[in-house]
C-alpha cells in the first residue's frame, strides 16, 4: 500500500508542476518502483503499482493483450525497499497441460525466455533484469518491447497444437 501512496503523490506532483519544469526520467532502478511506474505510464502502458505476497513492490500491466507482472527482487527484508532487480513474467493458459519437455522447446528457441510450468502444466516465461543503481530508461523500454515480441513468439509455440486442432 505504501507504494500506491507514493505513486499517488508522484501523480499529484506531476500534475501540479509545469510541463517545462519536469525533468525526464533518464534511468530507472528497481529501488524506485514509483518512478518505474511513471516511465511505463509515459510510454503508454496501463500500470498498477501493488505489492506481492511478502510486501515487495509489484507492477501489474499487460503486453500485447497478455497479463504482465513485474516482480521486484533483492529488496530489504525489513521494509521492502532498496530492490536491485526486476523480473518480467507472463503465463499462458492452455487447455491441455504441457510436459517439461514441451516447455523446454521455448527455451531452446527463444534466447532470453526462462520457462517454468505451474501446477496445472501451464507455461510461464520470465526475464530478469538487474538494475542496481540504475539503467537507462531507453534500455528498460527496449527490454519491454523485446519481451512483448517474445510473448508473441511464445504464444505461437504454446498454442500451435490448439490452433492446429481448430483447422
Structure description:
The protein has a single domain, classed as Yope Regulator, Chain: A (2-Layer Sandwich). The chain is built from five helices and eight strands. Helix 1 packs across helix 2. The radius of gyration is 18 Å and the shape is globular. The relative contact order is 0.15. The N terminus is likely disordered.
Keywords for this entry:
Yope Regulator, Chain: A; disordered N terminus; two-stranded antiparallel ribbon; 5 helices; 8 strands; 167 residues; alpha+beta
SSE inventory with pairings:
Layout: H1 2-16, E1 27-28, H2 33-42, E2 48-51, E3 57-63, E4 66-73, E5 85-91, H3 100-109, E6 114-117, E7 123-130, E8 135-136, H4 137-158, H5 160-166
C-alpha termini separation: 48 Å
Strand fraction equals 25-35%
Shape: globular
CATH architecture descriptor name: 2-Layer Sandwich
The number of domains is 1
SSE series: HEHEEEEHEEEHH
How is the quaternary structure best described? single chain
Largest β sheet strand count, sense and barrel closure: 6 strands, antiparallel
Beta-strand segment tally = 8
Radius of gyration: 18 Å
Amino acid at each position: 500500500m505504501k507504494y500506491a501512496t507514493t505513486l499517488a503523490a508522484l501523480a499529484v506532483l506531476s500534475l501540479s508542476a509545469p510541463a517545462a519544469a519536469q525533468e525526464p526520467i533518464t534511468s530507472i532502478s528497481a529501488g524506485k518502483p514509483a518512478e518505474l511506474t511513471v516511465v511505463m505510464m509515459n510510454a503508454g502502458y496501463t500500470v498498477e503499482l501493488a505489492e506481492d505476497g511478502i510486501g515487495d513492490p509489484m507492477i501489474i500491466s499487460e503486453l500485447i493483450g497478455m497479463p504482465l507482472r513485474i516482480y521486484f527482487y533483492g529488496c530489504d527484508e525489513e521494509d521492502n525497499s532498496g530492490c536491485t532487480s526486476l523480473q518480467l513474467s507472463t503465463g499462458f493458459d492452455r487447455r491441455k497441460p504441457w510436459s517439461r519437455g514441451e516447455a523446454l522447446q521455448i527455451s531452446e528457441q527463444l534466447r532470453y525466455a526462462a520457462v517454468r510450468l505451474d501446477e496445472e502444466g501451464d507455461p510461464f516465461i520470465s526475464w530478469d533484469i538487474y538494475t542496481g543503481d540504475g539503467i537507462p530508461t531507453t534500455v528498460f523500454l527496449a527490454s519491454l518491447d523485446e519481451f512483448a515480441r517474445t510473448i508473441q513468439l511464445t504464444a505461437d509455440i504454446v498454442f500451435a497444437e490448439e490452433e492446429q486442432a481448430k483447422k
